[in-house]
User: Which sequence fits this backbone?
C-alpha cells in the first residue's frame, strides 16, 4: 500500500508555475552574473581614465562642492608633481651659476640672460603655487567624500592658528629692541605651543584626506566615484609610489646640493 502511494507521488506532474519560477530564477541569476562580469571589466584602470581624472581636477580647480575620491586625489597629485619636478629642474638649471657660465660662453647678452632668469623664477613659483590651489580644493572635496565638513573640522583651526602665529611674529619683531624681554619670552612659548597645534591639525588633515576611505554610498555632499576594492587598492599603491618618488627626488636634490 505504501509503495503504491510513493509511485503515485513520484508520478505527480509538475505544474507550469513551478517550471516558470525555476526559469525566472535562472534568468535572474544569469543577469546578476552578467552584471558582476561587467563590473569587473569596468574596474580596469586605463591611461584614458588617468588623464580624465587629471583634466577633471583642473576643471574643478575652484570648486568646493561635491566629492572627490581618494584615487582621484592621488592621481592628480602624482601628475602635477611629475610636471612640477620637470619644470623646476629646468628652471633650477637656469637659475644656477652653471647657466651663467654656459650663457657667457655662447655669447648671450646681459638682457637676454636677465630675461631667462626672470622667466625661470616666474615659472618656478607658478609650478609650486598654482597646483596647490587645485589640490587644496580637491582636499576639501575629499573631506566631503568622507561625509565631513572641511572648514569646521580642520581648516578653521589651521587658519586661526596661522593668523595668531603671524600676529605673534609681528609683536615679537616690534618688541625686539625694547626692554620687554620677559614679554618676548612668553610670546615665544605661546608661539611654539600654537605652532605645534597647527602642525598637528595640518598632519591630521593631510592624513585624513590622503588615506581615509570615503563613503561608499551617497551622502549629503553627493554621489561617490571610483568605489570598490580595486580602486581602493589602486589608490594605496599610488600613495606608496608617490612617497617613494618624493624620497628619491629629495635624495637627488641633496646629492646635487652637497656633491
Assistant:
Amino acid at each position: 500500500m505504501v509503495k503504491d502511494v510513493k509511485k503515485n507521488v513520484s508520478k505527480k506532474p509538475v505544474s507550469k508555475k513551478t517550471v516558470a519560477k525555476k526559469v525566472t530564477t535562472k534568468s535572474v541569476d544569469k543577469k546578476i552574473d552578467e552584471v558582476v562580469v561587467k563590473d569587473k571589466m569596468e574596474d580596469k584602470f586605463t591611461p584614458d581614465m588617468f588623464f580624465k581624472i587629471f583634466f577633471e581636477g583642473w576643471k574643478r580647480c575652484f570648486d568646493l562642492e561635491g566629492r572627490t575620491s581618494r584615487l582621484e586625489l592621488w592621481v592628480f597629485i602624482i601628475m602635477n608633481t611629475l610636471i612640477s619636478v620637470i619644470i623646476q629642474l629646468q628652471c633650477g638649471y637656469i637659475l644656477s651659476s652653471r647657466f651663467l657660465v654656459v650663457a657667457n660662453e655662447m655669447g648671450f647678452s646681459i638682457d637676454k640672460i636677465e630675461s631667462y632668469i626672470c622667466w625661470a623664477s616666474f615659472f618656478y613659483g607658478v609650478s609650486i603655487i598654482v597646483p596647490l590651489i587645485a589640490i587644496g580644493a580637491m582636499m576639501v572635496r575629499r573631506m566631503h567624500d568622507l561625509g565631513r565638513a572641511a572648514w569646521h573640522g580642520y581648516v578653521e583651526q589651521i587658519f586661526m592658528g596661522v593668523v595668531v602665529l603671524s600676529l605673534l611674529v609681528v609683536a615679537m619683531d616690534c618688541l625686539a629692541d625694547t626692554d620687554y624681554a620677559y614679554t618676548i619670552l612668553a610670546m615665544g612659548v605661546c608661539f611654539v605651543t600654537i605652532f605645534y597645534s597647527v602642525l598637528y591639525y595640518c598632519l591630521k588633515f593631510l592624513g585624513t584626506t590622503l588615506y581615509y576611505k570615503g563613503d561608499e554610498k551617497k551622502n549629503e555632499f553627493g554621489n561617490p566615484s571610483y568605489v570598490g576594492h580595486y580602486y581602493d587598492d589602486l589608490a594605496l599603491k599610488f600613495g606608496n609610489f608617490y612617497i617613494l618618488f618624493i624620497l628619491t627626488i629629495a635624495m637627488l636634490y641633496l646629492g646635487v646640493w652637497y656633491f
